[in-house]
Write a structure and sequence with these properties.
By secondary structure, the chain is α+β, with helices and mostly antiparallel strands. Helices cover 51% and strands 19% of the residues. β1 (80-88) and β2 (91-97) form a beta hairpin. The longest helix has 72 residues, at 155-226.
Length: 451
């Protein structure tokens, strides 16, 4: 496995240290040194913080963590404690405590409060955690720590326990996110099994249904040929029209079924979910016949509805068969995304010869020695007429969630071109955009040859 694959997206192997980042961290280290000097924590207080930190790392479960949070003040400072968690906008429950007797606080304060020998310190979640809750906690308070009995609260005690609770909150935040992530993973694993059982397998039965429907359509054809056109010309003509219409509709529906099945089986591969990333299954294929033409057929009627002409001028379609080594399902979806965008965003434009035109063009061209290792590249183009994208938009096109300023009222999530980039880069390729006379060319370049 490539070491960068283990790091995950957005991370890379260490290179030269960033001077600005190093300076910023160095500044924070010195600030923390000054802070702890000003805190003047006693040896016992420092020991309590270190013990809490060590034990919070040592024990994994939330229940053990709740016990640690309350046990450290109890055994080191002889203070009883309660730890509360929010379960609603203004509703908290105790999840950890050192004694069973005593009244549970029914209204947890949202600010640090000292009353009747009890100190309450709220725990605030940051936006990452708060946004994952099924409710909006008041004041972003996700919990509260209660300590008692404290006869008289000094400013030093207040500071120390506030810092202690801050560390409780930080560890609590991470553990809640970790549990949430584990629950999410468990759900995804079960979902994959459900998808295989309830979607992929039943989808295979459609092939049987289509075969039966094809047989029935052919029965109409046989009936049509058995009629004597001289005796029943009207019935024969009606059967002819019915047969041709059914064949046309059947072929269109069957084409959509085949592509939908391909996409389902490609996107919902178990390996994707087990690895936490797209797993590419490459095999030799005919670029035009197996990838481009099936996607064109899916979108051809939509191009026609919007008056968009289809052209093969972007490098042309070579006469010879072009075979690539790729994941057919994923690269097919790259073209599906590009053709879908072409349907939505192709506009009429004035061409260099002065005429107005509205078309989408596709094709490919060789780029010798394109890659650093000396491999040739196959540049695959999808061109649309219309105004050029702004310079600012060009830099963000393939980022997650980005939508250009010229999208108008067209529906979109901003995920399509990001998906294109992901898939192409998984194939070792590169995506790009370039303005052309009269429009915009979106392209991707794949390694070409026996690789």
């Amino acid at each position: 496995m490539n070491p960068t694959d283990m790091l995950g997206e957005g991370l890379s192997l260490a290179s030269e240290p960033d001077p600005d980042r190093l300076l910023s961290i160095q500044r924070r280290i010195h600030e923390k040194m000054d802070d702890y000097k000003d805190y003047s924590f006693s040896a016992t207080e420092k020991r309590a913080l270190m013990i809490f930190f060590d034990l919070a790392q040592e024990f994994d479960s939330l229940e053990e963590f709740f016990t640690i949070c309350t046990a450290v003040p109890k055994f080191i400072f002889d203070l009883d404690c309660r730890l509360y968690l929010a379960i609603g906008p203004d509703e908290f429950i105790p999840v950890g405590r050192t004694e069973n007797r005593g009244l549970i606080c029914s209204a947890v304060p949202l600010e640090k409060t000292f009353m009747s020998r009890h100190l309450f310190i709220p725990i605030r979640g940051n936006i990452e955690l708060v946004d994952q809750l099924p409710f909006k906690p008041a004041g972003d308070v996700i919990g509260c720590f209660e300590l008692y009995p404290i006869d008289k609260l000094s400013s030093h005690q207040s500071l120390f326990f506030e810092k202690f609770v801050n560390r409780v909150g930080f560890q609590l935040h991470n553990k809640l996110l970790r549990r949430k992530g584990q629950e999410h993973l468990d759900f995804v694993r079960n979902l994959v099994k459900d998808v295989g059982h309830n979607v992929i397998v039943p989808n295979m039965y459609f092939k049987l249904f289509y075969n039966r429907l094809r047989d029935r359509i052919e029965n109409i054809s046989r009936l049509r040929h058995s009629l004597d056109s001289k005796e029943k010309p009207q019935i024969k003509a009606e059967l002819e029209e019915m047969y041709n219409g059914l064949v046309s509709q059947f072929n269109e529906i069957h084409s959509h079924y085949e592509q939908t099945s391909l996409f389902l089986e490609t996107l919902l591969r178990r390996q994707h979910f087990e690895e936490g990333r797209y797993i590419v299954e490459k095999r030799p294929c005919n670029l035009l016949k197996q990838i481009i033409e099936p996607q064109l057929e899916r979108y051809r009627s939509r191009f026609e509805e919007r008056g968009i002409r289809l052209d093969i001028s972007m490098g042309g379609i070579p006469d010879r068969e072009v075979r690539i080594v790729a994941d057919i399902g994923l690269i097919s979806q790259v073209y599906a995304n590009l053709f879908s965008n072409a349907v939505k965003y192709t506009r009429e434009a004035t061409m260099p010869d002065g005429r107005n035109d509205k078309f989408t063009a596709y094709g490919w061209e060789m780029v010798p020695d394109f890659f650093n290792n000396g491999w040739d590249g196959l540049k695959l183009n999808v061109f649309t007429t219309g105004p050029h994208l702004s310079t600012e938009d060009r830099d963000k096109l393939f980022q997650a969630g980005f939508r250009s300023e010229n999208v108008g009222n067209e529906y979109g999530s901003g995920h399509g071109l990001f998906f294109v980039r992901q898939v192409v880069e998984l194939h070792g390729g590169k995506v790009g955009y370039e303005p052309h006379d009269g429009g915009n060319n979106f392209y991707f370049i794949l390694p070409f040859g026996d690789h």
